[in-house]
Amino acid sequence: MSKIAILGFGTVGSGTVEVFCKNKSNYCKNTGKNLDIKYILDIRDFPESPYADKFIKDFNVIVNDPEVTVVAELIGGKTFAYDCVKRALEAGKSVVTSNKELVATKGAELLRIAAEHNVNFFFEASVGGGIPIIRPLQQCLMSDEITSIAGILNGTTNYILTKMLKEGAEFAEVLAKAQELGYAESDPEADVGGGDACRKICILASLIFGEHIYPEDVYTEGITSITKEDAEYAANWGGVIKLIASAQKFGDCLEIVVCPCFVPVESQLSGVDDVFNAILVKGTATGEVVFYGRGAGKYPTASAVVADILNAVRNESKNIIWKEKGKESCVVDYEKQKHRFYLRANADKTKISGLFGDVSFLARQNAPESETAFITPEISREELNEKCKNMNVLGKIQIMYAFDEERT
Amino acid sequence: MSKIAILGFGTVGSGTVEVFCKNKSNYCKNTGKNLDIKYILDIRDFPESPYADKFIKDFNVIVNDPEVTVVAELIGGKTFAYDCVKRALEAGKSVVTSNKELVATKGAELLRIAAEHNVNFFFEASVGGGIPIIRPLQQCLMSDEITSIAGILNGTTNYILTKMLKEGAEFAEVLAKAQELGYAESDPEADVGGGDACRKICILASLIFGEHIYPEDVYTEGITSITKEDAEYAANWGGVIKLIASAQKFGDCLEIVVCPCFVPVESQLSGVDDVFNAILVKGTATGEVVFYGRGAGKYPTASAVVADILNAVRNESKNIIWKEKGKESCVVDYEKQKHRFYLRANADKTKISGLFGDVSFLARQNAPESETAFITPEISREELNEKCKNMNVLGKIQIMYAFDEERT
User: Fold this and answer.
1) Chain B residue whose CA is closest to A265
2) Which residues of A touch B141 (CB under 8 A)?
3) Do B143 and A318 touch (CB under 8 A)?
4) Alpha carbon distance B84, B97 (integer Å)
5) Min distance A123 CA to chain B CA atoms (Å)
6) Chain A contacts of B302, Cβ < 8 Å?
7) Residue of B3, B100, B163, B200 marked active site
8) Å from A13 to nearest chain B CA?
9) How many CB pairs under 8 A join A and B?
């Protein structure tokens, strides 16, 4: 007897119930257990729902019911959701969640509590929606030394950047259209500001690094200042602009960042368009592996949640373990790291060459004479900002570093 | 105490020993077990090897040693390898293998024997080299109904096709170069004839269908008749030529095939070049997911073998189960299925329109006047071959069906 409780009947919660109920007989056959959803916790009433008899409003009912072995937390946020997850784990119930904010901020603690109570805490759906990434990292790629991960982890910003590039539209108008289509929230800050991608790369980085990496330690830059002119220069350079979240190990240190990047067309990430996500993992022995798919959406995310539920029911996979953060952060100061940058400024080429040395100039049609765009040599953000102080900078975007080349 | 035996010290075998020994202390820490390679079985002598003291020539030593809990079969073929795997499983040892021929022909039987003896039989490395695909299908996507899989599963043919397209070279010269570079065997038949890809799609199809699909039931066509002219027409059509292995469920039936296809540039498979592999999986809830990486090679394959060894040591994942084949094959007669085709022939447009109805003609530079190339409407291979009887056909390639559209 394995009964499941669903917390939250929003988009992912209702999708999870639908996917589960549609395939329930298969799941029972394959796990050899009599599985069912016993409770759905939501503050709202759903009298018309076919699952109306399962709704409850008191979480204590779930915690105190010994029949419930797996709890799926699909509420979001880190206050009530955190409290529920912690209490469920302490009550000896496995928990699965799609809540990236919760995992990115409280993951180490919740994994420790799960281990102490010999239950599972799974969160495959928290990164990449329906794309299998956490379990493959944990179970397939753990034989190798994973040195870096870079991904397009936010569908909303990728949709916006794709439209800007392909239709020559401006950021504000594409954002408005994305909101109309339901791809972007009415408050789009977490998406366009990079915060959502930041939480996801923290989860992936914690996995490969074995130590909790917290969002506040990550240099994060969104896409709000990107213009269609920048996209034109990216094309001239031989690439596209993508919001890249990346983490790279250097010995005991970790370089982690979320920022828009010029991505060369040769990269497998350059062809990832619209709301799709992709994650590029590099291992010493395995080389490059890419996982691609729908990074969000009701059913893709729900199918990942249900897969976690089934894995928790089987209770055959051990939890991931990552340590809580030590006294000294392993995250290097991103603004001191050297990268190449695209810059667009009102400045003449002589001045730019004088300031930056050996740069490559870019061109676009109908550019005003006063505008110069170029790619810098390797330079830290700190130095770059210093050099830009006396320049009228119109655009500034990092070049995604080549994962094929060793960096120093 | 978990000791490991390696069978075969060829490319994958020696890579497996290297990867394992390099990371051994991590593996011991992470599994909490005192892991080591105890034996390496090979008929050859390696007196200079740093592992010289581990070599043995008698498999009985391994079977009779109770310390050995995991055997990695990296010999290949289905005679001696089959015998070893069967005996190891019967002796209560888990087995991991990269041997696609063995899994594609004996998988159901070996999985049954493993289940009977409560041990694991894992074969992540048999498909896609270092790309995690079998475990993600089994553990992440099993919550969903997987309706189709299509992949570029053979690196050698993909390298040849990429060179033909990008450099306008002929098949024979590229094959010779691939052999020189070590990308192709001196007997390239299994690669260029499609047999290798066929074994791999059989393994994936068996996984999603739950019933063993055997290579002899699969319509298989290689790339030996592809010319650079066909590649030019593919470009004119808006795509590339790839050797596609695919399996698609229709209720209780399965359509499975290996053949060169025109793949549209919009497809995630079109940009998979050189020796890389990619597998596109489509599920009802998940939508499209793509797995991309190095489908072969010493270290990528070895890292997948080692991951399987570690999973077997932990003994926490259940085996996949697929039934042995029933009396009636579920595989539909591929030559009766309707698809669209590219045809190149010495025939005039009037005759072609008369024979095929509504076709789309293609063009290429410097084509002889007598040559006509076009895309047919949906037609079965049987009908197509009948219509082609009285035509001088120069090229014939299937159009990859759109995975986004429902087919009837």
Assistant:
1) B271
2) 132, 303, 307
3) no
4) 11
5) 12
6) 285
7) B200
8) 14
9) 164
Least Cα distance to A22 among A31, A33, A14 occurs for A14
DSSP state of A292: E
Selected for mutation to probe chain A from B139, B268, B269, B321 (highest A CB count within 10 Å) is: B139
Return the exposure string of A266-295: e unless at least 16 CB atoms fall within 10 Å of the residue's CB, then b. Answer: ebbbbbbbebbbbbbbbbebbbbbbbbbbb
Query: How many Cα atoms within 13 Å fall on the side-chain side of residue A264?
Result: 8
- In A51-166, beta strands by DSSP E: 55-56, 68-73, 94-97, 121-122, 146-152
Secondary structure class of B225 (helix, strand, coil): coil
Q: CA of B407, closest CA in chain A: separation in Å?
A: 22
ipTM: 0.93
Distance CA A289, CA B43 (A): 34
From B30, B132, B318, residue closest to A140, measured CB to CB: B132
Distance of CA B24 to CAs A262, A320, B252, Å? 39, 19, 46
Are the CB atoms for B201 and B149 separated by under 8 Å? yes
State residue B402's pLDDT score.
60
The CA distance from B153 to B137, in Å, is 16
Comparing A99-103, A249-253, B147-151, which segment has the lowest mean pLDDT? A249-253
Catalytic-residue membership of A200: yes
Give phi and psi for A120, each to the nearest 5: -95, 145
Give Cα B31 to chain centroid, integer Å: 30
Report pLDDT digits (tens) over A328-345: 788 999 999 999 999 999
Picking from A139, A144, A293, the nearest residue to B287 by CB comes out as A293
What sign for the dihedral angle of Cα B135, B138, B143, B147? positive
Q: Is A303's CB within 8 Å of B141's CB?
A: yes
Report chain B residues whose CB lies below 8 A from the CB of A299: 284-287
Which of A200, A242, A249, A396 is catalytic? The answer is: A200
Nearest-CA residue of chain B relative to A301? B286
Lookup result for tokens 């676009």: A364
* Percent residues over pLDDT 90 in chain B: 84
Residue with tokens 């499209």: B288
Domains, chain B, with CATH or none: 2-129+303-314 (3.40.50.720), 134-294 (3.30.360.10), 335-399 (3.30.70.120)
Q: Residue A323, SS3?
A: strand
For residue B102, the tally of other CB atoms under 10 A from its CB is 25
> What per-residue confidence (pLDDT) applies to A404?
44
